[in-house]
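Input sequence (130 aa), recorded before submission:
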Amino acid sequence: MIYILLNLLPILAATALGLGIDTAHHLLAGGGARTPSIGLILLAALAQFWLASILAGALILAPAKADPWIMAVGSAVVIWAGFVLPVLAVTLSYRGLEPRTVIVDCAHWLIVMIAQAVLMKIWGLVPPPA
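Predicted structure, token format:
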């Protein structure tokens, strides 16, 4: 987990970007009438930080056999499709939310993850010492 400390600035920048996308999603998806509590904002920040940290690790470990940009965006899509999408789809559907809401929320996290991957790829990540 030393890679998180070595890449703290790009991970924090990706966290801030994710929170910005969260804010836009909240306002555009009709949640603007209710202001999120400070506890929810802190939870969202922690989740964004952890998501960016895991994604940074995947980007660092991505094999150099393919184009680096394909690997960066592809890693975000694979993590989203393998973990985020199924969990959200099941949980939100179980709660009885409309299919449109489930789709919009799942798409939100795909956008967040791709945006974070692009930002961290542009910024550059440092692998941990061998």
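Checked by second reader. Residues 64 and 71 are 8 Å apart (CA to CA).
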